Amino acid sequence: MADSNARLREEDRLPKFDTRMANATAAAQASAQPPVQGVTDSEIRFGMAAPFSGPAREMGHQLKLGIDLAFAQANEEGGVHGRQLKLYTADDAYEPTRTLNAMKELYEQHKVFGFVENYGSPTALISVPYALERHTLYFGAFTGAPSLRHDPPDRYVFNYRAGYAEEADALVHYLVKSRKLRPQEIGVLTQQDAYGDAGWDGVSKAMRGLRGGGAGDVFRMSYNRNTVNVDDAIAQLRRQKHAIKAVVLVATFRAAAKFIEKTRDVYPDMIYATISGVGSTGLASELTVLGPKYADGIICTQVTPAVESYASVTLNYKKALAKYFPGEPADYTSLEAYLTANILIEGLKRVGPAVDTEALVNVLESMQNYELGLGPKVSFGPSDHQALHKVWGTQLDKSGQYHAIDLD
């Protein structure tokens, strides 16, 4: 009996094991999340690789402006679940040879969570694989290239805008159906890179549809990226035996303006039609400086409502622009970036506080009929990572102002 008592007293001296504490510890360990790159208790960091030097630098400025505008609005309202949104940028000058270093700067030095509104089709051939290899979000790039629109879509790549093929198709059908041109009377000026190829493919596909499956001969001219040297293209146009009555310009705004400047007097009745990748505000500015006859009648497809429209989202954008960046004019490129960022912000809100890439992708893929004030509603799905397929039409007047036109 004495031995038994001794054992009890010895056990009394051992540290007590509290099952409630054990359960609490296990629960804490289970709920503990590994750190997510670019996400802290106070902020979420995003990166953008775009041109902030070189001929396309104005596009980089406008894209950054649109993202900064949306982020500023969200941050003033308390951020997303208490986290402020922050944008880091890296300059690749719209040169694919510089894009990899820009991506590394953002991901490895600034430790961004994901990429938003990267610029360009040729640069995307470098930046998209980099993001995919790291299972990192690549959201709303400023390009309509097919390399970002695989079927089925790449899991981490989401687009806001209609593809260049959709814009080119809308233009070709407008020129044939509304302007009564024959397909062989339509030529194409393309930039010599993935951007130009994407637009060319869209025009060719539209031609095949109009010709019952055969594209026939489509007259194509080209020029080098980051230049305005369109002289060889114009020489090709002059040698063309069949009359060309319209040119679809798959170009950036300075090259497009130079082509129009050098051909307007020779072909006074030529119809010039551009897709949104041109940078429509920059194009309007360049042509307005040249004079009223250069701007008048130029057609441009858009992936947003007209900046001058009274769509609620456009009015909200201009109100925010006046508040956060007074003096900055409304612009189609910054409007697109603003819309892109707002869709991303909505996705982040729906994820909740425990944000990570996989959770965000799952939430985005479940986003259906989100009302942004655009007219068409925003939807994604596991087999469709493009928010909108709508193409709007605009046309310049002599004063350099765009007005909505019906493409149908």
TrEMBL record:
Residues 43-401 form the Leucine-binding protein domain. CDD domains: PBP1_ABC_ligand_binding-like. GO terms for biological process: amino acid transport. Pfam families: Peripla_BP_6. InterPro entries: Leu-bd, Leu_Ile_Val-bd, Peripla_BP_I. Keywords: Amino-acid transport, Signal, Transport. It comes from the Bacteria. Belongs to the leucine-binding protein family. This is Putative branched-chain amino acid ABC transporter. It comes from Bradyrhizobium oligotrophicum S58.
